[in-house]
Design brief:
Blueprint: H1 16-21, H2 25-29, E1 34-38, E2 44-47, H3 49-55, H4 66-70, H5 77-89, E3 93-102, E4 105-115, E5 121-127
Antiparallel strand pairs: 1-2, 1-5, 3-4, 4-5
Length: 130
Amino acid sequence: MSSSAGGELDFDEPRLADAVERLSPDAVNALPFGAVRLDPEGKVTFYSDAERRLSGYRKNVVGHLFFADIAPCLNNPSFHGRIERALAEGKLDITSSYTAELPVGVKDLNVRVQSVKGGGCWMFLQHEPG
């Protein structure tokens, strides 16, 4: 398993979602990148403390539809549509980059989305400094 000097999971870990599924909520909150867990309908079931801090998004989002209520800017064929197509094929492992306007300002993000057993997916967000 890849890890950084501090022993945390690395953003580039090949099976990152599987590894995160085995962590405690406190360990997921301590990751150096954001982590958001979506159920099969796209509702948020986990929104990490790291993502709250890095994005500045402080609202309670658990139970809300991610693409409708939290990030409607990503509700488009090239991002959300790509995730839906991959989930339907059972092969969700997407890496993408985009620029987002967040409460803390405009940031470049690296995003990884991986499916998990039982449906749904994890979305990992690495915020570039700047």
